[in-house]
Amino acid sequence: MSDVRGETWLWLAQRISAAVLAVAVAVHLGGIIFAVQGGLTAAEIAGRVGGSLGWGAFYGVFVAAAAVHAPIGIRTVLGELTPLRASSVNVIAALFSLWLLLAGFAAVRAIYRLGAP
Fold this sequence. Notes:
Elements: H1 3-37, H2 42-49, H3 53-81, H4 86-115
Helix pairs in contact: 1-3, 2-4, 3-4
């Protein structure tokens, strides 16, 4: 794959993940506002969200979108503002993406288990 083609795919992936994140953040914040105004505590919210396959899937997509979006941005910033070689920048971005995936899915799993029977 040519460098221009690869950069184009990264650009597209970041824009698509941004669109997913925009919806996910709106749903997440809307849910929090709705729940808090209804008088629910954090423990009650976790109890309702925990064990729900739907919410687990939603937050899994949220994590995946963040793990695509953020490392591409970090890659761009590091590439433009540091003397690091492109290969080093790519490794850093890939490791950051992996960390986001692992930490994010661990958090989703932990929340899901709160309500699991």
